Amino acid sequence: MILGGIYFGACFLVLGAASYYLIADYGLQPLETINKYLIYYFFFDLAIRFFLQKTPVMNIKPLLYINIKRKSIVNFALGKTMLSFFNVIHIFFFIPFSIVLLREGFDVAGVLCWFTAMFAIIFFTNFLNILIDKKEVVFYAVAAIFVTLGGLQYFNLFDITQYTGAFFQMIFQTKWMALLPVLLFCALYIVTFRFFRKNLYLDEGLSVKQTIAKTEDLTWLNQFGTLGTFLKNDIKLLKRNKRSRTTVFMSVLFIFYGLLFFTNSIEAYQNPVMQVFAGVFVSGGFLFTFGQFVPSWDSSYYPLLMSQNIQYKEYLNSKWWLMVIATVVSTILASFYLYFGWEIYLLIVVGAIYNIGVNAHLVLLGGAYVKTPIDLSSSKGAFGNKQAFNVKTMLISIPKLVVPMLLYGLGKFFFGFEIGLLLVAVAGIIGFAFRNKMFRIIENVYKKEKYKTIAAYNQKD
Description:
- The chain is mainly alpha-helical.
- The chain is 71% helix and 0% strand.
- Helix 2 runs parallel beside helix 6, helix 10 (226-240) crosses helix 16 and helix 17 (342-367) packs across helix 20 (435-458).
- The model is unreliable at 202-215 and 381-390 (pLDDT under 50).
């Protein structure tokens, strides 16, 4: 972890010191160019924070037993987040870049105001990320803004950089404009402070939120026996918990991922082999976002589950069927790709067949090696934990995307489009035909990793 921090710090340091001269070599105005694309820098920063940054604002239970004012506790917790690596890392870019600006004769007051504004925005994203994690309405609002602005930019309907670039440039030229990001940061700090101060109770903010119970028997699933029981639990999990609902939302976004490939607007994606990659992704959003964290979804009661008279095969079979159903539904929802032609939609259908026959088994197999418990009350998942990634899971991930691309590429290159599709589809059908054999292999792996998994789930961060 320390080596990783040093590496990224060095990268940002070099980028901050060299970017001015690299941009100038292309005949562009360095500061204006940086300002134009800063909005993407901050958007990317927020996205990285969402998946990787842990927000330690709730690790304060011991303080509630001490004679300390709630105001002080909240300020301490929020102040602690400002010292996060995700804030400090930006120093290594903006300080060297600002020093270069001063050496090149830029106005000192303008540079200082610009630097102050940049860090006000960085701290703003820090607290925005905290609210995204704790309040669903903020998450969906920010996601909607991201998708809307991204879509408008993609289809050349609205270029946000024209306005944000001018704004950041005005901060340098008109010094008082730096107050706007500072005031925005202060306002969000106050909102975040009030939110946590209001919920700073053992029976409210720090405990599982209690809601009015709703009866969801889903009795029609009883006809499927044990499989139906597991499916009912998974459906309830998807409906009731913040993290699982986020997964469903992300899997819907995967359906539209193919637009980047099939509209021919990005030259690198016009390669036919990349289009089958898109076909796998479009139909496999839920499979990838949900399946790779089986059994982590059940981490809170996994030890109890394993103490019952339950066969691993029954447990895994229910997860497999859930992913198959989601893949079929995603493929049907993706039927609007018929607008681009039958060939495009066939790529998606073939990708779905491969997902059902091969990838559904691979994600279950990889899940056996993921020892990361998931906090269902948080919109973040296991992405930020290094235990979620290891050599075994990486090796298992290769066939998910590389193999269908190779099969399609070889078939199309030597025989044509139809044979390429056929090879990918046949691979999926073969995987489905050997489903029972695959389940026996996966079941044995889960049994072998059983006690390691239980021990990992019992550990506290």
